[in-house]
């Protein structure tokens, strides 16, 4: 006889599980980063082990189907409180509740407080978490509920912030004591600049509102170090411990070592790609905008003449219809024609479109810098003589621009962008480099500032052209990136063939020597076969004398900056200057490597500066 397949009735009802006390609690620690102590535990519910209702998702899905979700939440809270009381741990207990369950909790707060006190858990040790599944239809009526809980001694937390119903609106109106950042934003934050920026925005608001942040979903040391160095005070995740019925009462040695790690994080904001680092056209359009009046389509040539006479610096005037540009009249072209005999008498009262360019170059304010650069390189060069019309994002007339202003604006914006991210290698530029040096010095983190330069790069660039020269620079960037630990070592591109690495890796010297070796071997493939056989190229030195130049090689001058247990004695500019000094020395070494000490070198530079500042009799 075949055994009968289990029916739907084989799954116990939630009310039966509650009545038979078959629910159990597990706890996950929440860590205070400042001292490495356990701030508290989040209580989580589990169904009977080995059954289809073991997980919280299955339990609450079944409870919703049976219409007893609130009863399950209350039973889960009682189970967690009872189990936590038996553990006899210090710290707070975080309990998850939906909005409906919190309302019931407040209504029966006397019973709730009695349960807590009966089990030996002081209400001041309870943190009520509003879960992400909750929808609060009337936030105003929910405010007294939060006040009631706080009066009883409990704290209020907003859970899984950044997803579902955990919104900025609730944060502002409910003013939680604790905000738990959803794991989506924390997992992988060490390598994701957008997640980093999102969490930094949350941090700014937390500082303003007085809420304590808890980063959920910390699973590895790299993410922990980034979150720690951002200034977020608490965290939770598998790195500190998985949910367990009998969790540890203290953090593991690995977690404690990570929290005390002397190196600081390399924030992902400094390693963005060019597309994310490039500014939009808003900055460029603002730089080149000429705010000028426009004329309606029905205006006459006399109206144009009157406007140009009234505004002698105006290079052109736009013709608009319903605030949208339809033509452009260039001042010089118009005046040249109008100065001809009898033209004013013949054409003065005729429509202005007679002497207008009916297809002007139009640039939207939102046009990117790259799109503007393509316009500069296009075959259509009318903008050089006529200028162009600038519109808003809805196609409405905003102002005018000239070819000269377009070239200047694009150039200035690109130069400014290169200070943040090099457009060739996509590596951080001078501003992020200085910022990271300041962070290292401010945190008293010992490091090695290594200035990288390429020997004989200029003659190679002159011989083979900038295109091939750019390929060598990109190869150098790739070699340097390959030897860096992205979580500890900062790589920036100063400009041209100059790079800077701020090493915190303990094996920094091996990494430096490996970079020199890999580059010196690989760079030879950029030469023609005959030049490879000759060992280099013939060219001219800076004075125009015929000279033979060997292969392009890498030189790295390094500066040791010690951690001295107190405020830094140096500035970012001094470290950069000393690193440049080390680089110049390395260029004269056969090995291409030099190490100098910051103390001695900074003192030397300061002495030279003092001598230069002395008055001359």
From TrEMBL:
Recorded GO molecular functions are: cyclic-guanylate-specific phosphodiesterase activity
Output the InterPro entries linked to this UniProt entry: CBS_dom_sf, Cyclic-di-GMP_PDE-like, EAL_dom, EAL_sf, GGDEF_dom, Nucleotide_cyclase, Rev_trsase/Diguanyl_cyclase
Tell me which domain of life the UniProt entry assigns to the organism this sequence originates from: Bacteria
PROSITE patterns (alphabetical): EAL (PS50883), GGDEF (PS50887)
Pinpoint the EAL domain residues. 7-257
CDD domains linked to this entry: CBS_pair_GGDEF_EAL, EAL
- Give every GGDEF domain span: 445-598
A Pfam family in this protein? GGDEF
The record's PANTHER family line, in alphabetical order, gives:
CYCLIC DI-GMP PHOSPHODIESTERASE PDEF (PTHR33121), SIGNALING PROTEIN (PTHR33121:SF76)
Protein name, per record? Diguanylate cyclase/phosphodiesterase
UniProt source species? Paraburkholderia sediminicola
Ranked from the top, the taxonomy reads: Bacteria, Pseudomonadati, Pseudomonadota, Betaproteobacteria, Burkholderiales
